[in-house]
Design brief:
single chain; mainly beta; Jelly Rolls; 10-stranded antiparallel β-sheet; 5-stranded antiparallel β-sheet; 15 strands; 13% helix; globular
């Protein structure tokens, strides 16, 4: 199911989400059991302070804990589901030249003790990030379990992504976005990027 803004030929700024908010049978969202299964991956893969391009940990800019989730037999189901959702959204909305995941998915934890957050940024950048086309965020935590932690996107006006646990949110990798500070509780999410050729098309 697509939830977002009508596609406009002159603009590629479109957020798409797959959720059960209006369609309980939506096949590309994550179930409550799958959300717990993904969060449990944090036990197998050590967490570290998230870093920005260039390898620096700049907590004023990005303050979160990241667990890198490799593509293997145990995680293939997750990569497959997210790739399927990305291909469907891309076919309907953007028609970018995409190939697949070239970087590990990131399992992120935002905690309230230091009001963890990520300020305005784009996912596409120089070097290994230059081929990023479609950004993916999966909400894993029930919104009743934390406050703050809104995923906001800037398309000329501020858009707030759904917070429903299991919702998959997709948008072009050049779109400005941020995660506001978590003020109570803890927010878990998955982020990843579907890539293509370095030249953006």
């Amino acid at each position: 199911m697509f939830i977002g803004f009508p596609r406009q030929r002159e603009s590629l700024h479109l957020m798409v989400s797959y959720s059960a908010q209006n369609d309980p049978k939506c096949e590309w969202r994550l179930s409550a059991e799958e959300c717990r299964r993904v969060i449990d991956l944090s036990k197998a893969f050590p967490g570290q302070a998230a870093r920005i391009e260039g390898g620096e940990a700049e907590r004023n800019f990005r303050d979160t804990t990241v667990h890198f989730i490799p593509h293997n037999a145990d995680t293939n189901w997750l990569y497959h589901k997210l790739m399927t959702a990305a291909v469907a959204a891309n076919d309907k909305c953007w028609q970018f030249d995409i190939t697949g995941f070239f970087q590990d998915l990131q399992l992120l934890s935002y905690k309230a003790d230091t009001q963890q957050h990520y300020t305005w940024h784009m996912d596409m950048g120089p070097g290994p990030d230059s081929g990023r086309k479609v950004s993916i965020t999966v909400q894993l935590t029930d919104p009743d379990e934390y406050e703050g932690g809104d995923l906001e996107l800037n398309s000329g006006k501020i858009l707030t992504a759904p917070k429903e646990a299991g919702a998959i949110v997709l948008f072009p990798a050049f779109m400005l976005h941020r995660v506001t500070p978590v003020t109570t509780g803890e927010r878990w999410s998955i982020v990843g990027w579907v890539q293509g050729q370095d030249q953006f098309r």
